[in-house]
Amino acid sequence: MSASDFPISFEFFPPKTPEGQTKLQQVRQDLYALKPAFFSVTYGAGGTTQDGTLQQVQAILNDGFDAAPHFSCIGATRDSVRAQLHEFKAAGIRRMVALRGDLPSGHGTFGEFRYASELVEFIRQETGDHFHIEVGCYPEVHPQAKSPEADVQAYVTKVKAGASSAITQYFYNSDAYFRFVDEAYKHGADIPVVPGIMPIISSTQLMRFSDACGAEIPRWIRLRLQSFGDDTASIKAFGLDVVTDLCEQLKNGGAPSLHFYTMNQSAAVTALCKGLGS
Ligand code: FAD
Question: Residue 235: inside a domain, yes or no?
Answer without folding.
Answer: no
